[in-house]
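Researcher: Quick test of sequence recovery. Tokens follow.
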């Protein structure tokens, strides 16, 4: 298990334990993180798991593939450190990461 912190736009913070090898989206859904709807259930098509990763952790996450970037671009509010939570797989290197929920 790896501890991560979800931060909402209103400043609300929730710390959760994420299981290594599973996605950030799964950790969010299992811990009832608000505004992570994950409508496509991790198929990288809906964009409802949009998050922004803290800059000092972004390079520790897996690389974005083109399909993920296409979905983020269509959202119209993505940032340089935006990710789809369903495409970020957890490991111990991400312990303590702060994730802003879009
Ligand atoms: S859950 Fe739909 S894009 Fe991530």
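Model:
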């Amino acid at each position: 298990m790896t501890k991560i912190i979800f931060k909402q736009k209103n400043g609300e913070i929730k710390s959760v334990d994420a299981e290594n090898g599973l996605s950030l989206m799964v950790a969010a859904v299992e811990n009832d993180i608000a505004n992570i709807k994950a409508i496509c259930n991790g198929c990288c098509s809906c964009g409802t798991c949009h998050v922004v990763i803290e800059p000092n952790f972004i390079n520790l996450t897996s690389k974005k593939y083109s399909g993920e970037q296409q979905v983020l671009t269509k959202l119209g509010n993505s940032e340089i450190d935006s990710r789809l939570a369903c495409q970020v797989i957890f490991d111990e290197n991400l312990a303590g990461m702060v994730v802003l929920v879009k």
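The pocket of FE2/S2 (inorganic) cluster is lined by residues 25, 38-40, 42-49, 71, 84, 86 (CB under 6 Å).
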